Amino acid sequence: MTEKHLHEEFMSGEQAYRGRLLDVRVDTVRLPDGRIATREYIVHPGAVMVVPLLDDGRLVVERQYRHPLGRVMLEFPAGKLEAGEPTLLCAVRELAEETGYRAREWARAGVLHNAIAYSSEGIEIWFARGLSPGERGLDEGEFLDVATATQDELLEMVAAGELTDAKTLIGLLWLQNWQKGRWPLEWKAAP
Known about the structure:
- The chain is an alpha+beta fold and 191 residues long.
- It is 19% helix and 41% strand.
- Strand 2 (23-30) and strand 3 form a beta hairpin.
């Protein structure tokens, strides 16, 4: 399928800001109708999000303060990819660091792009099962609580507007569709 009539042509670009996490770019592009426009966006190395399934059906979640929103958010474990890090190894690392859990089996669900208008970030969605508890290894300056919840409890929080994290909502969507046999997962042993 060709969508050339929608494409924008890159003309020039510059880095507007570079921090420890954010790499903000400003590009000049030629629009499909020939006009010139500016695009501001964040280049992101990518991340992973883990949907951790306990043997009794409960899900492992975490509560963490998110400064831009000024509140504690409920979310599935997630984290940024290190340079050159395979996504599965990042998922294994983040689950253990943040929750202490190790998984016997892993399955990749897909990728989500949560802010397509202003960020290149792609978040790989991984499912983990056969969990066993262990010691956490939080990063310096990282503070979070680990909890468990049933799928129904999380869905009630969604309906009440209490659970609003986009990646966690997509994780729940994947979970529902996998359980109904619509979106298959291929499980493999932990690395």
